[in-house]
Each structure stands twice: as structure tokens, then as C-alpha cells.
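Problem: given the chain below (274 residues), write out its structure.
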Amino acid sequence: MGRVPLEDNYNDVIAKAQTGLGIDDADLARRAQVPAAAIASLKAGNFDEYTARRIASHLRLNRDALVQLAQKKWYPQQPLFPTGFMAFNTPLADMTVNSYIIWDDRTRHAAIFDTGATCEPMLELISSERLSVRYIFLTHTHEDHIADLPRLVAETKGEVWASSREPSAFPGAKTFEENAFFHVGPLSVKTLFTWGHSVGGTSYYITGLSWPVAVTGDSIFASSMGGGKVSYADAYENNLKKIMTLPNDTVLACGHGPLTTVAQERRNNPFFVR
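Solution.
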């Protein structure tokens, strides 16, 4: 998989914060003491550092991180996994979506997280590595993340699992509560409810690989976070308390965009740099 672009630009971050906090352009202009036209121009892609810095704190965004994002001065360093973990980035309409697989080298047992737009590349890996899929975990049930679920189940016979807050309509799918544990050989998978983008968004904290991993779905992205379609406040708090408190070296396997780590997001994510 080649270099995956960041999911959001600086104007996407501004729009998500504005929408989530319920602050329109006129209100933001009044608070930041800048012309509303300057904000509209900024959001249209005409970057102006002065305006960006003026509005950032009123949107609870870190000024320096927002400017860095706009100036394209940072991209997360990618962690290396010798074995047992693979990411897939597949195109869907005008975007791309990620899915992931983990496995135990000894037993060849595996678990999948979401399906991507197509599971074809994942099926090729499963065949070449002679893996036996035990679980198919869903981060949430938005269509882009479950687009190829029927084929994935038919080909792998894996059990489908999703949050009790957002059950899957797929026949035979099972549900879990928060802090449930699953095991794939020596690998441990813990469920964390990180709703807000969706009603039952779930992150999966995995230990036993070269690095701890959190598969986050659309809860958080490199330099951004998912929009709070259900509740921006809950999305933000769940990210802050359940993802950003994980160990620094935890790899964040996001629903869109590149891999990142907790440490890198603490230093570079406009929503979470303090």
C-alpha cells in the first residue's frame, strides 16, 4: 500500500469544529474579531495564517497544529509490522476507506476489522498466508465500512461482531458490550465504545503484536477526527478519554487516512494538542 493521504485538510478540521460546536461564520467572526468574509475565504481553501490563528482557540483547536496542517508540514511516521498486521486502503466513489487484519503466526488464526470498499486484497492475503478468520469486527455500520461484508463472510466464514449500541443487520451477527475481550491465539482484542460519529462507534485495542494497536474506525484520524454526526461532544470526549490515554506507542489504525500513533497525535492533532 502506497502513501495514503491525510483524510482531512485544515478547512475540513475547521468545518468539523464549527459544526460540532454550533458556531456559524458570523458568530466566529465576532468572537475572533475578524471579517466574516475572511473566514469564508479561509474555508474555501485560501489559507491565511492570521485568520486561522485568530479563530483556532474559539474552535478549541491548537493554533500551531492547525497552521502546520494547512502548510502540509507534517505526515505521520509509519510504524513497521514484520508480521501479523496488514492495512488495506480501497477506493469508494471520491474517497478511500481502510480495513485491517491481524493474525497469529503460529495458529494462523485471524481477525478482520471492517471490509473496505472491496475485500479482494484482503482475501488474497488470507489465501497466501493460509489464514483462518475467526472474527469480523465492525467499527460501525456506515456503508463505506461494511460495503463488502456479504462476500467477506461468504469467503471466510468469520463471525460478525458489532457494538450492542449499533448492531449489524447482517444475519447471524453478534453484539458485545464495552470492555469485552476476544483472543486470536496470543493476541488480545479489547472493545472500547467511542461513539459520537455514529451511535455505536467502537475502537478495538489490540495487544500482542509488535506494537499495541487501536483500530479506531471514524473516531479519530491523523491530524483530525470523525465528524460528530450523532454527538460532537461525545465523539470528542471518547477520543480524549479512551484513545488519547492509551500508551504513547499505540498505533492508531484509522478508518480513513494513514496510520499514526497516540504520541504523534498528541503533538500534531489540532483537536488534541494541549
